[in-house]
Amino acid sequence: MFYINDHYYTEEDLKSYYTSFENIDALHNGRRVRIAVCTTNVLEWLALFFYMKGKGGSVVPIHASSPREAAIRVAKMASSHFLINQSVSSIVHLNRTQPEEEGRLVQFTSGSTGAPKCIERIWLEVEKEVEEYIKRLPVGRETTPIIACPVTHSYGLISGVVASLKREVEPVIITSMNPKYILRKLREYPNHLLYASPSLLYSLVSLLPKRERFHMVMTSGALMPSSWLASLRAVSNQVFQQYGCSEAGCVAIEANVTHPQQMGTPLSHVRVRAGEIGRPSEIIVETESKTIHTNDLGYFAEDGTLHFVSRLDDVINVAGLNVYPQEVEDALMEEPRVKEAIVYKKIDLYAGERVCALFTSYSPISEMELRKWCQARLAPYQIPVELKEVIDIPKLANGKVNRKMLSEVHV
Fold first, then answer.
1. Measured between alpha carbons, how far is 155 from 398 in angstroms, rounded to an integer?
2. What's the pLDDT band for 113 if we cut at 50, 70, 90?
3. 298-324 residue pLDDT tens
4. Same domain, yes or no: 159 and 305
5. Is residue 333 part of a domain?
6. DSSP string over 307-333
7. Domain that holds residue 348
8. Residue 339, domain CATH
9. How many CB atoms lie within 10 A of CB 131?
10. Could you say which DSSP state residue 279 is in?
11. Residues 281, 173: one domain?
């Protein structure tokens, strides 16, 4: 059925879990309850996910690294009846008493631009997404999905695990983020499609031995810097990118990424509205049941390909002129000594907002040198007013950067 690291698990292994769940009062009548799950046991989590989905109940995945009190807080925010904390032998009873009306997948937004929001999707919506995702993904059954991202998030769980099983392909789920281990697994499956975050893909590229290549890779969740994408494309047979939002799941897939902003053609079960070249506007996604204002800025190219420019909250307004963070980040990272750069905004009494940047480097570089580099490549209003070198750029558990948090921390 699927591999988790080096171990293979069959459908019978899952059914043995189902049998044990039937003997637990909190799970027996799964159709009427909402269960939050926080566990490092990936097999148990997936068994609970498929069990609750099959029962028609609701499930709330919580990142496995969450401490007990944090998991309880999230479970309550999601209006859960129970929390399974690390094991089904440890069930926390919460305050909710009214029964669940209809089964659904309950998740939280990443919180990269503010407080996480609780998002609920009925199982029928999830199944429709999977169906359309499979139709659009141009890979055969001979290609092995290798999922090196959390399976508590839609990217790894729905696009990775659920879609693979629906295609009757056995996925390989990797819980260790050790790049050397991931490279070893990729060698075991030469016809692979690797699901990973941009930062992990970049780490893998930097460690990839000469004369080795990736077969297919999928990136999602954050824009990949142009220099990173160029390095990835140079060692990959094919680079995919998918775009989505918590309320609708995957919205578009690009099968041949040549520029970080390319998100591909929207899936057929959604209708997407956006701006045009030179005039981006908010990306709005319409499903059969709802209209979703994504707070993302984007446009459609002449060939119908959706392009993502920035989060609306991340656009920096300098005296009435818009600065898009990735344009500045790409310019910074073209300097050979700069390893990674993140651009964010702060309030400015005179210009309204000002451009700020954190960066890491391979070798020493002064602020004056980097500023001169930017002056030759950016308009004056795009040049960071503040440039600060750090050892590491802080990221959320899903690999994304909270730019709002950076503006509050780096004062």
1. 10
2. low
3. 999 999 999 999 999 999 999 999 999
4. yes
5. yes
6. EEEEEGGG-EEETTEEE-HHHHHHHHH
7. 315-409
8. 3.30.300.30
9. 14
10. B
11. yes
